[in-house]
Amino acid sequence: MRKFKKVVALSMAAAMSASMLCACSGKQESTTSATKTDDKASSSDVTETTEKKESNAAGSVYMLNFKPETDEAWQDLAKTYTDETGVEVTVLTAADGQYSTTLQAEMAKGNDAPTIFNIGNTTAAQTWNDYTYDLKDSDLYSHLSDKSLSIEYDGKVAGVANCYEAFGIIYNKKIINDYATLDNAVVKSADEIDSFDKLKAVAEDINKRIDEINEKFGYELTEAFASSGLDSGSSWRFSGHLACIPLYYEFKDAGCDLIAGQGEITGKYLDSYKNMWDLYVSTSSADPKTLTSGTYNAETEFGMEEAVFYQNGNWEYAPLTDEANGYLVKAEDLGMMPIYAGVDDANQGLCVGTENYWAVNSQASEENIQATLDFLSWVITSDAGRDAVANKMGLSAPFDTFTGDYAPSNAFSQDAQKYMDAGKTSVAWSFNATPNVDDWRADVVSALTAYTEGTGDWDKVKTAFVDGWANQWKLAEEAAK
Fold this sequence. Notes:
Layout: H1 2-17, E1 46-48, E2 61-65, H2 71-85, E3 89-94, H3 99-107, E4 116-119, H4 122-127, H5 139-142, E5 150-153, E6 156-161, E7 165-172, H6 173-179, H7 196-208, H8 210-217, H9 236-254, H10 270-282, H11 298-303, E8 309-313, H12 317-321, E9 334-337, E10 348-353, E11 357-360, H13 366-381, H14 383-392, H15 411-421, E12 425-427, H16 437-453, H17 458-480
Parallel strand pairs: 2-3, 10-12
Antiparallel strand pairs: 1-3, 4-11, 5-6, 6-11, 7-8, 7-9, 7-10
Helix pairs in contact: 1-17, 2-14, 9-10, 9-16, 13-14, 16-17
C-alpha cells in the first residue's frame, strides 16, 4: 500500500507533464481519455459491459481501456476471445477526462486490479514503474515493427504502442500537380516538394497565382495554407505539433530521451519554428489580427479546396473523406508531407508517435500475467483481433502482422509508412515532454498572438518558449516531491 500511495502522489505530476490531445479528437491534450458511458451505469465515470463468465482456464484478463471510441469493439473482442478460449476478459473504459483517476482507483484493488493499462509517456512509466511488467521477451514486442514505438524505462520495456498516429502537412495532390503544369511553376509535381525551401517557394508562388490557377483549372482557391487559428480549438496545432519540431531537434542534439526531454532548453531551433509560422500566416487569406477569433475553420477551407496545404494529423482523413461533410477534396488527392524544418530535410519523415502504450501489471498473479500476454498476442495475430483493431477501431497498428486486409486504409498513415520504408527518420513526439502543458502552451500562444498581430516581437515568443519551459518544468518537479 505504501508503494501505491507514492504512485497516487506522483501521478498528479505525471498528468501535468503528459501532453497532446487524445489526438483523433483534436481537443484536450493530456494522458487522460474520454469515455463511452453505459446506460445501465449510475455514474458517468466508467463503462463495464462485459459479463463475467465462469472459466476453468488458468488466469484472467482485465483491460482498462484508454480510447473511448473503441469501447464497443473491445467489448465484442473480449467476448469472442472468452467464447473461443474460456479465458475471462473484462474491459473497462474510463470516463471523459477520468483515465488517470480511474487508473489510480482500479490499481488500488490489489488482486482485482487491471492486468492491462495505458501509459502515455516516459513520465507515466516512471510513475507506474512498480507496476509495469518487462515486455522485452513478449510476443507483443517481437512483432513491433518500429521498436521506437515502445517505452523503455528502468532497464525494461515498460510499454508497447498499440497504435500510432502521424501528423505533418496535409496537401492536395491534384491542385499542386495542376499548378505544376503552369509556365515557370516551381515544381513539376507534388513529389518534388522535399524541403522547407521548396515548400516555401511553392506556397508563395501558388499564393501569388491564385487567380491564374482558378481561371485555368476551375478552382475557387483563396490561399496556399489554410488558416492557422490561435483560438483554443486550433492553437494546439502550433503550441503542440509545430513546437514538436524545434524540441525534437534540440533533444536529439542533447542526446536525451526524445520523449522525456529535459528541464532546460535553449531554443536552438526556434528559427525553424518562426520560419514555418511566418509561412503559414503569410500565405493564408486569414487576417493575422483575427486568428484568435475562433471564426476560422481550416478543415473546411482545405476540404472545400480553398487551400492547398493544412497542418494536421492522420485523424483528419476520416472527416475529409466523409461524404456527409460535402467536401470537394477526394481521397485519392490527399497526401501528407513532413513539417520541414530546414535542419535535416533529406532524412526527415512525418511526426509519428502515440500516447497509447499497453502496459502489463507486474503486480498481477503469474497466471493472470500469462493470460494477459496470450490475449494481447492473439489480438495482434488472429483474424478477429486484427480486423477489430484495423477495421472496426480504425487504428494504425505498429505490428508486422498488420498487412493485406489489415494494413492502414488511411492515406496519411500509408504516407507515414512510405517515409519509414524509404529510410526516413520519423520525428518523435517530443512535445510529450511539455511540463504543465496547458500553462506553458497558453503563454506561448499569447506571445505568438502578439507577434502575429504586430503588438509584440519574436523575442517574447522565445522567452515564453524557453524560460517558460524551465519555469513550468521546475513547478512540475516540485509538485512531484
